[in-house]
Amino acid sequence: MSTFAPALAQLAIECEPEGLTVKNSEKIAIELAKFFNVHQDEIGILRLDKESLLFVHPAQLNNVGRIPLNSSTSLAVRTANSKRPEIVNSFARTRHASFFEMVDVGSKSKESGKKPSKEEQVIQKIMSVPVVSMTKVLGVIQVCRKGLTAPASGLDFAPADLQKLVSIAAAFAKCFIK
Fold it and tell me: Which CATH superfamily is domain 6-177 in?
């Protein structure tokens, strides 16, 4: 647990009794956003529910729909099915399901401090890691950088960032079990 922020390690312990509630997922997203220097809405927390992935955070995406585990265009599904973490620093140029990107999740633009346009909500860079317990996938955690262009969205994610997120996901696995 010493490979990441003490606040995250403590939060994993605190969230375990209740599990991955909306309230706990928001707390997790706040701490992950601070840790990776992104906006809170650039954190995606999905849990496996039957044969699909369901957003727990951002909460606004919870009722938008599910992502079936047989989806061929979803990075989250690929992460869950392969059980492999992944970085895609050219995500906007890859074929992917962009439906969820167009849902207003209420953040403010990094540049102007105002509500971003739809173009500024495009995911440019992303890390996606499975949440696994005893070889069983329980969900996926994603950290992304949104912006009008890849350079405007911020720095590329590095392998060290991915390794930190893998450790964090492992620490939160017990929260996904409830």
Answer: GAF domain (3.30.450.40)
